[in-house]
Specification:
The chain is an all-beta fold and about 350 residues long. The protein folds into 2 domains: about 5-15 and about 225-359, Immunoglobulin-like (Sandwich); about 30-205. The chain is built from 2 helices and 26 strands. The chain has helices at about 45, 335, and strands spanning about 5-10, 10-15, 30-35, 40, 55-65, 75-85, 90-100, 105-115, 120-125, 130-140, 145-155, 170, 180-190, 190-195, 200, 225-230, 235-240, 250-260, 270-275, 285-290, 295-300, 305, 310-315, 320-330, 345, 350-355. A hairpin with a 5-residue loop joins strand 20 and strand 21.
Length: about 350
């Protein structure tokens, strides 16, 4: 019998939804809630009148808290890292459904109101590059928390909130993602590190030209889900013998993070897996790193035997990130590995989630 080296299973994922993930730093936790009421009001109402935008609408609220691992003066500053379309770095353009002050096109900029301890800082976010300082080089201390950041869209050339009554607004750029996505960063050990692994969307609802959604009113609540496949170092590879016949080798876990709704009576998705080495039905394949030799195996999501490209219902999801199911490899037949070529064997599996109401 040839010497058997460990086989490796590499899991990749394809997510049809995006929102913030778990904190990349054990010191902090971050939560972002998109505002569904985008009614345009006086900037005085929002407490941002000093920035010289006469009216604004609320975009969303980010709340930053510390965990038991947090220590004073170990982290420094808060920064936004931007992705997506941001109006060429300066300004966004909104199209109005009717003329206001003899125009239908209005410039707008993103504003941040940062509250920490007894302080409030107001920032006009100019995307001269992809990173913007919210608290520049400020050492983070427990007495500053929770740090609450409200984002607003300040709008030019509308002088009173009453002038916008009855008007509907959309972002001019159809290719958007509206205001785009962001990560929150902080400085640790002299380098910027993300607090949220997965980018969050300022607006997950599509307010671009041509969509059915408009700013300046109450939007329908929407729920967002993010799929992540997590592997500890011990799960990135496994000895073949551990998954032979009735054996099971854990290779990671699937986590679904749900956000975007105040109440969640019932929400679910389906999750499907596609083998990267041509497996069909219940057969997945590990492929030798240098040859075309294959080792058939089965994949399990919890106790469910996974069939290629076949949706598996995952119902009764809860808000937050505690929706977990383990992934296992098994059913490797002894006769399939008795005389195989020694070496490492790999598979790349794509996981996809789809909301149940669109299946």
């Amino acid at each position: 019998m040839k010497h058997l080296k460990k086989a490796s299973l590499l899991i990749l994922l394809l997510c049809l939804f995006s929102l913030q993930g778990l904190s990349a730093l054990a010191d902090l936790t971050v939560a972002y809630e998109e505002e569904l009421d985008t009614t345009i009001s006086s900037s005085l109402y929002f407490g941002i009148q000093s920035l010289q935008y006469p009216v604004a609408c609320h975009v969303g609220t980010l709340t930053l808290s510390y965990t038991s691992a947090f220590a004073n003066n170990q982290l420094s500053g808060l920064y936004l890292e931007r992705s997506g379309n941001w109006g060429n770095g300066v300004e966004y353009w909104l199209q109005s459904s009717r003329s206001i002050n003899w125009q239908t096109r209005f410039g707008a900029q993103l504003i941040a109101k940062v509250r920490y301890g007894y302080h409030t800082d107001l920032k006009i976010i100019n995307w001269s590059d992809s990173t913007f300082p919210l608290l520049n080089s400020t050492a983070l201390k427990k007495n500053m928390f929770p740090i609450v950041i409200d984002f607003y869209l300040g709008i030019r050339n509308i002088f009173y909130g009453s002038q916008a009554i009855g008007a509907a607004f959309q972002f001019e750029d159809e290719s958007g993602p509206n205001l785009g996505d962001f990560k929150l960063l902080t400085q640790k050990n002299w380098s910027l590190q993300p607090i949220n692994d997965t980018p969050a969307s300022f607006f997950a609802i599509n307010y671009n030209e041509g969509s059915s959604n408009y700013l300046n009113g109450q939007a329908d609540p929407q729920v967002q889900a993010t799929l992540s496949i997590e592997q500890d170092a011990s799960e990135e590879s496994f000895p073949l013998a551990s998954a032979v016949n009735n054996g099971r080798a854990q290779v990671g876990q699937a986590r679904i993070t749900v956000s975007g709704a105040q109440s969640l009576p019932s929400y679910g998705v389906t999750i499907s897996f596609t083998d990267g080495n041509g497996g069909t039905g219940y057969i997945f394949n590990l492929k030798h790193e240098h040859t075309d030799d294959l080792i058939p195996f089965s994949l399990y999501l919890g106790t469910t035997h996974v069939q290629n490209m076949t949706p598996i219902p995952w119902e009764s999801l809860q808000l937050g990130s505690d929706n977990l199911r383990s992934l296992y490899v098994g059913n490797i037949m002894y006769q399939d590995i008795e005389n195989i070529i020694a070496g490492q064997y790999y598979d790349t599996i794509t996981a996809t989630i789809t909301p149940l109401d669109t299946n």
